[in-house]
Amino acid sequence: MREPGFRRWKAAAALCAAVIATTTVTPTAASAGQAPHLDFQVEVGVDGVSSATIHAERYTPTGRARGVQVMVPGTTYDHHYFDLGVGVVSQARQAAREGWVVIALDRVGTGRSSTPPAASVTTAVQVASIDRVVDRIDRMYRGLPIVLVGHSYGSVVAEGVAAASDKVDALVVTGFMYRRTPPSFEGFPALTPAATDPVLGGRNLPADYLTTAPDSRTFFYHLPNTDPATPAADERTKTTTTAAEVPGFAQELTGQTYAKAVHVPVLVVVGEYDYLYQGDDPTAFEPDQKNAFAAATDVRVHLIPNAAHDLALHRNAPFTTALIDRWASSAVA
């Protein structure tokens, strides 16, 4: 950890008033909104995976960069979660407009990244591979702070990387939280073989790769606050998971192993209709996160109204992204 300074948290009203930040113009590799492809070849050395290719999309600001946000998607999502392109403002593109270099990843086993045998697509492989990617990003952007931004299972992976790496300056956890009582998974989409799925069946994926059952992803949304085109686009761009990585989510939810080892500032952002939040004691929400991240230099929490699990894909996503970007700017100042 580089021990960045930390300024006091700004009021939510101020965050809402500044959705798009203005930056000072300096030369950059690409203009805001462009997403050049990046492919990182990294050593892994975990669970039978010696090396892997991690695909990413890069978004660069037109002005002076505040830092680098490395975005890590959740189960059955790849970089499209952060840049769906339909029905919602892209979190990745908005963050670039607000002054951040954004690198949105496809984790191992998803998108255009390596697809090893299903039994080797584990949480340990995810953490190790992205830890190596962060090392590469640190060399690419020397002097710029690095903020990990996870979503759902990607938050678990991001926590693991933040716990292991000395290159991470701040951590944003979205769509994941800690609680004293177990959440309800009632209604969670069934996981079915990717080989027989209408979207993924023709991609020649390894045996035993899984995905969500067709047209079941509305579970992740608060539909009254969702553009009707968004779930359909989500279905078209969905990707895979494996039985081997599923335990990592549950183990971190209950054991808090990664959270306890995080020493950088942490922001936890959850939607009020997220299945992980439903049934929780509202008064325990903030204390439970602070207890889980007890070693972090600072822990802030925010509940987003009128949103469910997929925070970046609701109509109020620009507010959520602005909140994250302003907090990140404070955390690494």
Automatic annotation (TrEMBL):
Name of the featured protein: Alpha-beta hydrolase superfamily lysophospholipase
Keyword ATP-binding appears in the UniProt entry: no
Signal peptide annotation: 1-32
Keyword tRNA processing (UniProt): no
Keywords: Hydrolase, Signal
Pfam families named in the record: Abhydrolase_6
Every AB hydrolase-1 domain range: 70-314
GO molecular function: hydrolase activity
